[in-house]
Each structure stands twice: as structure tokens, then as C-alpha cells.
Amino acid sequence: MTWHIFIPDSLLEESKDQKIRTYKIGQIARAASIFGVEHIWIYRAGGKDGKFIKLILEYAETPQYLRRHLFPLRDELRYAGVIPPLRTPHHKLKSKPKVGEIREGVIVKKGRMYADIGLDELAVVEDGKGLKGRHTFRIVSTKPLKVVLAQPEEYWGYKVHLTKKSLAKTLKKARLDVAIATSRKGEDVRRVKLPEFEGNIGFVFGSPRKGVLEILRDFNEDYEFDLILNTIPNQKTQTVRTEEAVLATLAVFNFIRRD
Amino acid sequence: MTWHIFIPDSLLEESKDQKIRTYKIGQIARAASIFGVEHIWIYRAGGKDGKFIKLILEYAETPQYLRRHLFPLRDELRYAGVIPPLRTPHHKLKSKPKVGEIREGVIVKKGRMYADIGLDELAVVEDGKGLKGRHTFRIVSTKPLKVVLAQPEEYWGYKVHLTKKSLAKTLKKARLDVAIATSRKGEDVRRVKLPEFEGNIGFVFGSPRKGVLEILRDFNEDYEFDLILNTIPNQKTQTVRTEEAVLATLAVFNFIRRD
Lengths: 259, 259
Fold this sequence. Notes:
2 copies of one chain form a homodimer. The first copy, chain A, is of the alpha/beta class.
């Protein structure tokens, strides 16, 4: 089962403070990581922050030792220090290299092909011809330090997709098996007979000011969701913020899932 | 059913930034309000922020129009502007007064006894002799504007208790019917047969660095919890922050509760 979440590019429409805006995106990054979300989709909903949201989500997802390679200093990252560390399995600390260990790395060319995998020395990349940028590697030798490309089995962070497309088009692109809209006006999640979930499951969230269905309407769109659910029945506050809805909804579905 | 949450005075031990510290407490206030928590207990766990946490929680819980009466300007409130509004039923906007309406107010003495209930004029308090500070009022007449003390039936915010006592002592003081510790090492909430909950239910949370059981041990204490639960089974991050655990746990129990 692969989890996707869909958030609007208007996520920050009610936040003016740049530090808090950064922190809020960090909360989405944390929620996604806690529950093993593999894809975060940012859809067009009239907001102006799509690129910024993507930048902060990707920054948060990148192991600390790779950030200086992949994120040149820029003004939008001024408050990146407030983003809580994810502490997922792929954010490894520096340690003695072990054969078999999987680490994220970035290609560094120095005559031969090397990767910075966050250790004291660079690792030689075997069969690394033509590689660029960030990859996942397995250590196959420690003296000399050598790595090959690897496919991790445990949770290894999320990918961010800024589609610049409306919600219905973004959903189509994601090719979900089950699409679940969250809405205060949806069915009470406690009363619905939920199907056995399999494959690609998408949870769709609205913006601080507009619900999912309203956003679709604004774009003259329609989408046949498998479920439209109120995942916070009897909420006592008039609104639930997107980042709160993400964490609460994933917590409920993490409880429901049995695998 | 009445929900209580227990948070340590070391809640902020990993946050140095004062704006983020304020915001984090605001997140606890929001989580409590979304799910109708009526009591927030701050227990002693070696932290230094008990008073600050209480201040911000109470500030957040106070309707905006009463804040200037009850919270004189002070340095700790410098970043209070970042606290998200709760938008609970007791945070009313200014409107035309209606007979029967319940509003929070604060006593203002001006010869007779008046209350500021957030409207254009002060309300005369009937039978208000000896009253001071903040109370809940019902409008009984609009011309002239008159109120009496009232007991709201809907969710009306939370009370904050800074006990300055250790966890076991704080729990004893709260006189719970069911005490639930949250812990990564607890039983998987999905596998436990949960009792029908009634009465006063307490959810106990640890600090960013120490779990509930560890905190008890540090104080040479023991407490017989009804349940020790892992409410976020299979978490993919090494730690879950207190404010995340509060929101996620309450979301799961809101799903479980059937009333």
C-alpha cells in the first residue's frame, strides 16, 4: 500500500509570518513521515506558494548531510532552521560504515565517480556511469569505501510533486486506486463501511479557507471520489487547519489499516 | 465523558526559538479544542516552562475581546499573535445581542456590576454581588442589556492546571476514571480490546526526550495506568513530538468513541 496526500498551493493563505509559514510546511513533512506517506502532491488552488511549499518539503526530506550539496543558500530557506528533523530511517547520522548499510548520497565527480554518503570519506560508486544528483546507495565494501545503487525496503521518505494543475487533473495524474476526500461535510468516518485498502491510496485536503469540494467547484471541476469522509467527527472548532487535518486523518487511517 | 490531557513542563525542551515555542503551545491549545478536551494538566518533569505553557494555553483559550482585561501586556506574550485562533463556540464574534445567547464575560465594576461580554455596550449583571473576573453569562434582556450567570451545555474551552507536582501526584489529583499513558513501547492500540469509556478519561503524554514511563522512573514513581498504548503503531520517524502525539492520539480516540 502506498499513501499519497494532496495539499493545495493555498496552504499558507492565512499565514503571513515567514518563520511560521516555514514551520507549518515542516509540520506537513513531519506528518507525512510519521505515517510513511510516499508522495505529496501540491495542486493548484489559487495560492501563490506552490514552489515555496515544494522547496521546504524537499529540504525537510533531504538528509542533513546532503543539504549543502542540493540546496544552495537562498532567502526562502532563511528560516529552515525551525523545521523539525524528520528522523526517518533514511536520515542517517555519521557512523562507522558497515557493509550492507543503505544510505542516501549525492554524486560528486572527481575524476572517478564518488558519492557523498555522509561519512568521513567519499565512497567510490561502482557502475555509476552517467549518474548525477541524489541516489540511494548500499555499501558493498568499507576498505576502500564502495557503494552500488540500492532499492531500500523500509520507508525512505517522500517525493514531492508540484503539478501546477487543478485538483481533478492532479488526481488523474496520480493514478490512484482509492481517492479519499476529507471534508467537514463528508460522511462520518465512524459510520462508513470502509473497503480493504490496497494499492495507491490518496488523501485529499482542502485549504484553510476552502474545502475540497469548494475548490473543485471553483475550477468548474468534478471528481468521483471513492469516499468523501469527515475524519474529525464532532469537531469543536469551526475550522480545522490543513496541517491539523493531515496529521489527524493519517492517524485515523493508520489506526484503521491492519497490515 | 470528560477528556483530560497531561503534558510535561518540559514540553519545550527542544525549542529555543521563542516564536516557535509560543506556536507549539498554540498547537496543543488547538488540538485540545478540536477534540473537546476540558482539562489540560501540566505536570512537573524537570522543565522550566510550566508557567509559560499555562500562560499561553490560557491566553489562547480566552475569547479575544476579554484578553486585554485579563492579560496585561508582558514580554512572554510578545509572540502571542502567532497563536492560531481556536474558533470554538465560546469565542464569539461581536454581533447583535440575542436573548438566550451565552457569552463569556469579565466583571467590570462601575457603581453597579457590569460585564464586558464583547458587545458594543456593557451588560448589567443580575445577582452579580461579589463576582470578580471571568464568568459565563446568558443574555436575559437586550434593552437594557442584562445577563445572568450561565452553565453552557456545548464545549466551552478547557481549564489549565499547573500542579507543580510530579506526574503520579498530578494524576492522583485529577481523580480520573480511566488513565491512559501513551508510549511508543505501549501496546498497539489496534490490538487492544478497549473498554467502554465513561467519566473522566486522561491521556498522558511524555516530553520530547523522555517517555511517560521514563519520567515516572526519574521521579521514583509508579502509577497503575489502565492502559499503556502506542497510539501511532509503526511510526516511521524515530520520535513523535508531544504536540504531534496529542493531536494524533485524540484523533484516534475521537474515532473510537461512539457517543
